[in-house]
Amino acid sequence: MPELSRDEVRHLADLARIDLSDAELDHLAPQLNVILEAVASIQGVAGDDVAATSHPIPMTNVFREDVIRPSLTPAQALAMAPATEDDKFSVPRILGEE
Amino acid sequence: MSLIHLSAAEQAAALAAGEVTSVELTQAHLDQIAATNRPENGVGLNSFLHVDAEGALAQAAASDARRAAGAPLHELDGVPIAIKDVLATEGLPTTAGSKILEGWIPPYDGTVTAKIKAAGLPILGKTNMDEFAMGSANENSAYGPVKNPWDHTRIPGGSGGGSAAAVSSFQAALAIGSDTGGSIRQPGAMTGTVGVKPTYGSVSRYGVIALANSLDQLGPVTRTVLDSALLHELIGGHDPMDSTSVATAVTGLADAARQGAAGDLAGVRVGIVKELQGDAWSAPVVERFEESIEILKGLGAEVVEVSLPSFVHAMAAYYLILPAECSSNLAKFDAMRYGLRVTPDGDPSAEDVMRASRDAGFGNEVKRRILIGTYALSSGYYDAYYGQAQKIRTLIIEDFTKAFEQVDVLVSPTAPTTAWALGEKADDPLANYLQDLATIPANLAGVPGISIPSGVSSVDGLPTGIQFLAPVLEDARLYRVGAALEAALTKQWGAPIAAPAYAGNGNGEA
């Protein structure tokens, strides 16, 4: 497995929406490489003849009755929100500066 | 013997006989928590993140009223319980051990919480855990580590160190844990207690703050095998709110435990896992393990060695599948609808706020796993890592299927070592991951597992654990074999093993 560079870790953190500081990058990047080295052993272990398992107890088409049930009130749903306005979640601007 | 030293089954019997009230029982446990939890001065166990004395006593009074009216809701009605902070409890803070959820109070109950309330068990509070259940030592909690009741300088195991320490220190006889790669069973081994990871899908995950959906499972944390069986039956069963819930009734577990305790294992085939032996396993753990194997033979079990060759790849597969699932799951913590919001200076966008909030709210282990998962799922690497890991999962399931054609249960030590010193491996993720060697395969395959105490190490005097695994939906086998071994070991010891400073009337001061 190719070693992850500091810039690649920064890129992964960007994809994961985590704002890592330089100090955090210095700390975490070598640890990630140790972990990736430890899991790299699985490459090529199973061939094309082995099916992938995503779920230990296979199930398909799990439905329940389509009935109206009690649900949260707007006040309950919004009670733990960082900010609200007019019975809605209030969020920062979603568009960029340009 | 004081009330808190009774097992849950004994507490239930005392309630039924009118020898004690639920208010008295609940108060006794609250007193023990108050005397021993004490995170504020750094000497206490720190096993509870939140204690709900008022709520628990009100529920206890209601239980006593039901019993006085001749209408208890359940065999365990009135027996207090602790709940791992990973499960939503309406009106009680639920943080999953993370700063990003500090102060979050769920507006609803998880299904298991609802079942506990419907059965009338007073809820003492929420137990400490590694952040989002990521850890093997409870040192990844954002609210400080839990201490092992056997030795306050040692880790209690993880991620469910809080629940295990709570039952080990007699703060509760019953607790809920969650097991994604061993988080119920490994702390059981570290604290000399019993923990069960049920068959995947047999206990609802609705209201559980997900770590890895295809691996997570709630289960009982107790001091006796029978208590785990009683709690497992209470929390198990189909739930339409969980699309992975298995439509099979969860029954017969307490009966299996009672049958096992009679001590006859004639005809039971037990397979020692060849791949869970060797240099990684410390001599004192192996010593106690081999002693237990001889006891099983003496009870009539037929013991053979079986090979599950793909187990050697289980840890690597797990530490790709779990980060992949958790990196996706934890994307929900975006600082928009609930949880911590950190707003940088200037005129930040929603994405800027997300980045700052997730940096401030997540601890190092959570960040590491999100980054590994993001990497494993990225195009170009997906097939080589995540795809391979999913195929290994298939091979491990096939190994189990073949093994269970030869034996009824599999057995191994639960963890390679006894509890290590707080701080010793705190910033060494791989050293922590290696603790899960024996417990991970069950989660990958969905099979049930139990850990029970196998004794104490002849070197450091700390508890050791033995694990049994059974086929999917054959959880009852674990209780039969576990109870048989527990009864034989207890007879040999003269009494159940207990943390010395908390046994008798101890309160941890010794």
TrEMBL record, chain A:
The keyword ATP-binding applies. GO terms for biological process: glutaminyl-tRNAGln biosynthesis via transamidation; regulation of translational fidelity; translation. InterPro entries: Asp/Glu-ADT_sf_sub_c, GatC. It comes from the Bacteria. The keyword Ligase applies. One of its GO terms (molecular function) is asparaginyl-tRNA synthase (glutamine-hydrolyzing) activity. It holds the Pfam family GatC. Keywords: ATP-binding, Ligase, Nucleotide-binding, Protein biosynthesis, Transferase. It catalyses: L-glutamyl-tRNA(Gln) + L-glutamine + ATP + H2O = L-glutaminyl-tRNA(Gln) + L-glutamate + ADP + phosphate + H(+); L-aspartyl-tRNA(Asn) + L-glutamine + ATP + H2O = L-asparaginyl-tRNA(Asn) + L-glutamate + ADP + phosphate + 2 H(+). Its EC number is 6.3.5.-. Heterotrimer of A, B and C subunits. Allows the formation of correctly charged Asn-tRNA(Asn) or Gln-tRNA(Gln) through the transamidation of misacylated Asp-tRNA(Asn) or Glu-tRNA(Gln) in organisms which lack either or both of asparaginyl-tRNA or glutaminyl-tRNA synthetases. The reaction takes place in the presence of glutamine and ATP through an activated phospho-Asp-tRNA(Asn) or phospho-Glu-tRNA(Gln). Belongs to the GatC family. This is Aspartyl/glutamyl-tRNA(Asn/Gln) amidotransferase subunit C. The gene is gatC.
UniProtKB/TrEMBL annotation, chain B:
PROSITE patterns: AMIDASES. Residues 24-478 form the Amidase domain. It comes from the Bacteria. GO terms for cellular component: glutamyl-tRNA(Gln) amidotransferase complex. Transmembrane segments: none annotated. The active site is at K84 (charge relay system), S159 (charge relay system), S183 (acyl-ester intermediate). GO terms for biological process: translation. It catalyses: L-glutamyl-tRNA(Gln) + L-glutamine + ATP + H2O = L-glutaminyl-tRNA(Gln) + L-glutamate + ADP + phosphate + H(+). The keyword DNA repair does not apply. Keywords: ATP-binding, Ligase, Nucleotide-binding, Protein biosynthesis, Transferase. The keyword ATP-binding applies. Gene3D superfamilies: Amidase signature (AS) domain (3.90.1300.10). GO terms for molecular function: ATP binding; glutaminyl-tRNA synthase (glutamine-hydrolyzing) activity; transferase activity. It is an enzyme of class 6 (ligase). InterPro entries: Amidase, Amidase_CS, Amidase_dom, AS_sf, GatA. Its EC number is 6.3.5.7. Heterotrimer of A, B and C subunits. Allows the formation of correctly charged Gln-tRNA(Gln) through the transamidation of misacylated Glu-tRNA(Gln) in organisms which lack glutaminyl-tRNA synthetase. The reaction takes place in the presence of glutamine and ATP through an activated gamma-phospho-Glu-tRNA(Gln). Belongs to the amidase family. GatA subfamily. This is Glutamyl-tRNA(Gln) amidotransferase subunit A. The gene is gatA.
